[in-house]
Design brief:
By secondary structure, the chain is of the alpha/beta class. The chain is 17% helix and 29% strand. Strands 13, 16, 17, 18, 19, 21 and 22 form a seven-stranded mixed sheet that branches. A six-stranded mixed sheet has the order 7-4-6-5-9-8, with no helix packed on it. Strands 20, 23, 25, 26, 27 and 29 form a six-stranded mixed sheet that branches.
Length: 424
């Protein structure tokens, strides 16, 4: 079958110019995402490239860190009993028998009345049980005059003080931070098992679109969804199939069945189609998804993003995101972003901080659909910006976050406390 032939799909999927017969609930859409977004395979990467990656296997230390008793400051390793009662008025003399440096220990055993010059991080010689700071003593040739005393164990980092052999240090599912990589290196791990990043393909469609960053002209507008989605995918741990920041925007696809089919069938774990998802005559994406695979959901009871859809082509997940920027952002955050995070071994939850604050004024909604309302915070009050205006992307930049009004709620009165998910 040629890609431009009329789609041979069940007639219930062809809702062009007729409207949706039924809209799925947000809960149904989320359940579909959870069912089809199991974590992908693991891969081995160098700790030099592992920052931000998701740990695939828990890590247990095979060694003690440190593996030896070490000095915690510059001074002299000695036996605490030999300088008990020492002071500036009553200095006690010890004999210096050697020096211990990081990586170059003193091999001699300390006996009574002896000391070893030692630097921070250097191994404490056998027989020594404390370190006297350099500023609390005087050195004259091979003689050390201790002008203070210290208890046993003072200024010494003990074997295994940082990490004990056999200790679980990092659990699977952790997003690795720079300090985690340092810890992995300290126990001898040069590589680490992490979840593969899901490969994500962007398909931005619309006759009216110019490449991102272009100056709008006539009835054509610059693509806003491509850069926004690319950044969201990166935030959620996905790896874009296309190269970013190219001279020609290779996310843009002609709004015709042939080009759309080729783009949707391209290599990827997840395909994000922005535009062409609704019920207009030129909205080809839903029928093409039904033809080449499975259109599981089309039309969701929420505002904005009601024209969103999702399905599969083989093992590849395909999300149909509305072309209007706010709807696109909302549908991505609710569904596509969740799938990308789950496929990459991350938590499904939004990567947004949540606060609970009272409303400055009434927030109106409609029973039967979920509403995504942009809000700003003003002196510890929540001020709604808009609950409509799916094409007004600037409303999200003016907003500090959003409030989700559930489908069984008509909204909230002034003063009601609501959960706000903060963009920042």
């Amino acid at each position: 079958m040629h890609a431009s032939d009329p789609p041979q799909t069940p007639p219930q999927w062809d809702v062009r110019m007729r409207g949706f017969q039924r809209r799925s609930t947000v809960e149904e859409a989320l359940a579909w995402v959870a069912e089809h977004s199991k974590p992908g395979p693991l891969e081995t990467v160098s700790i030099w490239q592992a920052s931000g990656r998701v740990l695939g296997q828990s890590v247990t230390s095979p060694i003690d860190v440190p593996a030896f008793d070490r000095a915690m400051m510059d001074g002299y390793a000695l036996r605490a009993a030999d300088i008990q009662g020492a002071s500036s008025y009553n200095p006690l003399k010890l004999r210096i028998i050697g020096e211990s440096l990081p990586g170059r220990p003193c091999e001699r055993q300390l006996e009574r009345g002896e000391a070893v010059r030692i630097m921070t991080g250097a191994p404490v010689p056998g027989g020594g049980d404390s370190v006297l700071p350099a500023e609390r003593c005087d050195e004259h040739g091979d003689d050390l005059l201790a002008q203070d005393d210290v208890p046993p164990g003072k200024n010494i980092g003990r074997t295994g003080e940082d990490v004990r052999s056999g200790t679980l240090i990092l659990r699977a599912g952790r997003q690795l931070r720079p300090q985690d990589l340092g810890l992995l290196s300290s126990i001898g791990h040069s590589t680490v098992f992490v979840h593969q990043r899901p490969k994500v393909r962007l398909v931005i469609t619309g006759h009216e679109l110019l490449p991102a960053g272009s100056t709008p002209r006539g009835v054509q507008i610059a693509d806003a969804n491509g850069p926004m989605l690319a950044s969201l995918v990166e935030r959620d741990g996905g790896s874009l199939v296309q190269q970013r920041a190219t001279t020609v925007d290779d996310y843009l696809v002609d709004d015709n069945p042939d080009e759309l089919s080729r783009a949707m069938l391209g290599e990827a774990d997840v395909v994000l189609v922005s535009g062409g998802s609704s019920v207009g005559r030129e909205d080809h994406a839903p029928l093409l998804l039904a033809r080449h695979g499975e259109l599981a959901i089309h039309g969701i009871a929420m505002r904005p993003s009601s024209p969103a859809g999702m399905g599969r082509i083989g093992s590849k997940l395909v999300f149909l995101l509305p072309g209007n920027p706010v709807s696109c952002l909302c549908a991505y955050d609710f569904f596509a972003g969740r799938a990308i995070r789950l496929l990459g071994g991350r938590p499904a939850d939004w990567p947004y901080r949540k606060v609970r604050l009272p409303l400055a004024r009434k927030l109106v909604s409609t029973v039967g659909r979920v509403d995504y309302c942009r809000v700003r915070l003003e002196t510890e009050l929540v001020e709604p910006i808009s609950i409509s205006g799916a094409s007004v992307l600037s409303s999200t930049t003016r907003a500090d976050g959003f409030v989700v009004v559930p489908a069984d709620c008509e909204g909230y009165p002034p003063g009601a406390e609501v959960d706000v998910w903060l963009y920042g």
